[in-house]
Design goal:
The complex is a heterodimer. By secondary structure, chain A is mainly beta. Chain A has one helix at about 25-30, and strands at about 10-15, 15-20, 40-45, 45-50, 60-65. In chain A, about 10% of the residues lie in helices and about 30% in strands. Chain B has 13 helices and ten strands. Chain B has helices at about 25-40, 60-70, 90-105, 115, 120-125, 135-155, 165-175, 180-185, 210-220, 235-250, 255-265, 270-280, 300-305, and strands at about 10-15, 20, 50-55, 75-80, 110, 160, 190, 200, 285, 290. In chain B, strand 4, helix 3 (about 90-105) and strand 5 form a beta-alpha-beta unit. In chain B, helix 2 packs across helix 9 (about 210-220), helix 7 crosses helix 10 (about 235-250) and helix 7 packs across helix 11. Classes of the chains: A mainly beta, B alpha/beta. The interface between A and B is large, with 28 and 57 residues.
């Protein structure tokens, strides 16, 4: 994505960037880029926002991945 | 969306509970929930000396923070696995925990695997057939051994871990897909010490989702290691968690219902026969004193001390 001519709303998850149209909710935006809302937290300017928040032109939404991994399978005590 | 308690702007919507909360009320709600689960499932008593296994991730640090908030004193145990893989993973996680413990004046035990056994987890994994291509299996084995040993040697009554609902549901999902009856029989939020070589284990966060805990850590400004362990990338556990999250999105509460229904079935005795069989099969490793299913040295001792 070319940041110089950025339009709409930018979603950023780790090193991946997605672009969606303004005027839709966070929930809808996540659905459009195929990210389950349960797997991330959305933040704007460092503040947590809920999924019903309507995104505005120029918004940059940083998505915080919440899944952690490691040695959990199989777990045998 | 408004906070259900005060009407201020909500920072999180918990769809499975139909509950939206602002920062202030969310930071009150989480410790209250944990306190409720600790009592409901009889996890801790006032006399218990508690050790928390901390990794530097959000869950274990949130657990340590929540217990402190509740006035429950607990010491930490960090196992330095020596995982580097070009990203200094263990180095950064160790530093994160040391800062956390120092600033809160909490007591932290550190076991350095390389120092103690002369090899890192990655080196151990490369040497054994068990670990070839799947260091997580070796890592789990080593961590369980060290946790049991340190807890017993230092006189703790209980080991608390930061396993959350997603961890538990993913394990249950994997074990159910493969009908791993032995593992299913042993899974639960409280694992009693049914052998002198084991420490009692509890998981006070098991009913809270990763999303809830990540939100708690962010709002509480807990500095945690965000990136995955390089060995966990592409692991089955992560794949299962992702699949369960797709299901959760369609049916809020699906993960919690899946896990609680399992606990209910277990309570009704679904796995009693297997449990009994496992108990009868337990032997004691002559070297370390921890349980093993086969007579003679346990897998850990055979792998590490050979």
């Amino acid at each position: 994505m070319n940041d110089e001519v950025f339009m709409g709303v930018q979603l950023q998850l780790r090193d991946k960037k997605y672009r969606v149209k303004a005027g839709i909710t966070v929930f809808k935006a996540l659905e459009q880029v195929n990210i389950p809302s349960e797997s991330v937290l959305a933040t704007r300017n460092g503040e947590l926002i809920t999924e019903d928040e309507v995104l505005k032109e120029g918004d940059i939404i940083t998505l915080v991945a919440v899944i952690s991994g490691g040695s959990i399978f199989p777990l045998n005590g | 969306m408004k906070c259900r308690k005060c009407g201020e702007k909500a920072v999180i919507n918990l769809r499975q509970h139909r509950l939206a909360l602002c920062k202030v009320h969310y930071l009150e709600w989480i410790p209250r929930q944990v306190d409720r689960f600790i009592h409901k499932y009889g996890m801790l008593s006032q006399q218990d000396r508690i050790l928390i296994a901390v990794s530097g991730g959000k869950d274990s640090l949130a657990l340590w923070d929540i217990l402190s908030t509740l006035g429950i004193l607990a010491d930490g145990l960090y196992i330095d696995l020596g995982i580097d893989e070009g990203v200094l993973y263990s180095h950064i996680s160790r530093q994160t925990i040391e800062i956390f413990a120092d600033t809160r004046k909490l007591h932290l035990h550190i076991v350095d695997v390389k120092q103690e056994f002369g090899q890192t987890i990655s080196q151990m994994a490369n040497k054994t057939s068990r670990g070839k291509g799947k260091p997580c299996a070796v890592c789990g084995l080593v961590k369980r051994h060290i946790m049991n040993r340190v807890a017993r040697e230092k006189g703790y009554d209980v080991l608390a871990t930061g396993h959350n609902l997603d961890d538990e549901a993913a394990v249950l999902f994997g074990n159910t897909l493969n009908w791993e009856l032995d593992y299913l029989a042993r899974q639960g939020p409280v694992l009693e010490a049914n052998h002198p070589g084991l420490i009692r284990k509890v998981k006070p966060l098991f009913r809270l989702s990763e999303r809830e805990l990540a939100a708690y850590a962010i709002l509480k400004q807990i500095r945690y290691i965000y990136d995955e362990c390089p060995h966990a990338i592409g692991s089955k556990a992560i794949t299962y968690k992702e699949q369960l999250n797709y299901l959760e999105e369609q049916r809020p509460g699906a993960k919690l219902n899946f896990y609680l229904s399992f606990l209910k079935a277990k309570k009704k005795g679904l796995f009693n026969a297997i449990d009994q069989e496992q108990m009868e099969k337990l032997n004691t490793c002559p070297n370390c004193g921890q349980p093993t299913t086969a007579p003679g040295e346990c897998t850990f001792c055979r792998m590490v001390l050979s």
